[in-house]
Amino acid sequence: MSSPEPCRRVAIVGGGIAGLAAAYFLRDQGIVVTVLEGSPAIGGKLAVSEVAGIAIDAGAEALLARRPEGVDLIRAIGLADQLVRPGTTTASIWTRGHFRPLPRRQCMGVPADFGDLERSGILSPAGLDRARQDAVLAATARDGDVAVGQFVGSRFGPEVVDRLVEPLLGGVYAGRVDQLSLEATVPGLAAESQKHRSLAEAAAAMLGPGQNENLAAQPVFTTLAGGLGSLPDALAEASGAAVRTTATVRELARTPEGWRLTIGPAIAPGRIDADAVILALPARPASRLVRQVAGAAGAAAALAEIEYASMAIVTLAYPATAFPEPITGSGYLVPAIDGRPVKAVTYSTVKWPHLASGLHVVRCSIGRIGEEAVLQRDDAELAALAAADLAAATGVTGRPAATRVTRWGGGLPQYTVGHLDRVRRIRAGIAAQPGLAVCGAAYDGIGIPACIASALMAADQILGYLEGRAVAERARGAGE
Questions:
Q1: What is the pLDDT of residue 212?
Q2: Which domains are seen in the chain, by residue range?
Q3: What are the C-alpha distances in Å from 97 to residues 17, 121, 319?
Q4: Does position 5 have pLDDT exceeding 60, yes or no?
Q5: Which of 91-100, 188-197, 372-381, 467-476 comes out lowest in average pLDDT?
Q6: Range 130-149 average pLDDT
Q7: At 213, is the pLDDT very low, low, confident or very high (cuts 50, 70, 90)?
Q8: What is the pLDDT of residue 170?
Q9: Alpha-carbon distance 117 to 359, whole Å?
């Protein structure tokens, strides 16, 4: 694709990883890009700060290394030497009062090997017997999208759902597996399940016969030595875009030349004119802006249907001697059915050896959709709650040397049943608005690589629009 005519202006609304990646993909195209972020800092859910003198991510702390978009972008902006590998990714499930190893052969909690599942001890004998029925049950008919919990439960029974799928998949989205979409959250397994009578066989086909040496040598996850929270500033600088913080966009309107964005308070509004706009916002604020655009009511309505879960990350630092046993794994998950406030724990200084010091730093995730009441506690109460849960699980003694509470209100989009259809309606409605695009975690995946992929799609859409517009303008000029 050739570059559009120079001096085109693109406004990107939202300075999270998707908005900043979109700005980067538009660089060197003869375009003036302005990123507008409503909060005081860019980065969205990527942020880093010190806990007990150690720089620890307050939001996402790892990205999927085997999906290329994240690592490729990091390398492209010159941070390849900052990529670090985890020391361990071995995780466990804390359930029914004991730590139990996560089965090695499973796909988001869906077991591919019943022997492996039995050895884990996660299920009761009755639950294991029910799970084995998957091998003999008739194929489960599926007409369109269904909830993950419904489909997996029909094959393996409720214990697999409650003690494996929920802590894994529900932990990613802070959602409930009886609401999350099979096709949107585990698309590969959803497709493979159409080819097999047994869901365990479908999971085994997804995983393959076993890891080959080359695949095993590649880490599943990676991070940056300074924390993933160091990525936004580096990406903003590499993009060459003008970045404005505390610049909430309140109105979006078409003009004869393109778009007008109104920023700031009603008593002293500012305005920016642009040839094209990318909305890199959560679905709800994106819906409010899109609703103001004539002919985009359908897209606005579909955006408004996407719900969000709130959560908090409580980071605790302890002397290594406070733990009665050496920590060997990367962390553990807790099934919601066990009634604990903490749903996941990461041993940061064990998972990431470059953070190692005389302290163990532990991240505790609290909050699922529908459980917002626990998040109403103040920071001190929430930290005490996490510390008590950690003590019950690990036997850690004494008070933490340092704590940090980070709240992500409405931070995680819920890919509920019908999500893919909602995304199709959103994109169809946005495509009907020349020079408008969307990207971010609300659409095709909440991980960093997925957000970057959506940013590339939006940037390509805008480049195509601007080039087509330039061609039309040249043709008009030649005919005059």
A1: 42
A2: 8-44+230-306+416-479 (3.50.50.60), 100-214 (1.10.3110.10), 308-413 (3.90.660.20)
A3: 39, 12, 24
A4: no
A5: 467-476
A6: 95
A7: very low
A8: 87
A9: 34
User: Measured between alpha carbons, how far is 478 from 475 in angstroms, rounded to an integer?
Assistant: 5
pLDDT of the residue at 171:
86
Contacts for 199-203 with beta carbons within 8 Å, 24 or more apart?
199/110, 199/134, 199/140, 199/151, 199/152, 199/155, 199/156, 200/110, 200/111, 200/112, 200/113, 200/114, 200/134, 200/135, 200/155, 200/156, 202/110, 203/105, 203/106, 203/107, 203/110, 203/111, 203/112
What crossing angle do the helices spanning 283-290 and 297-304 adopt, rounded to 10°? 160
The reply to whether the predicted model has a pTM over 0.90 is yes
Can you read off the two tokens belonging to residue 19?
């908005």
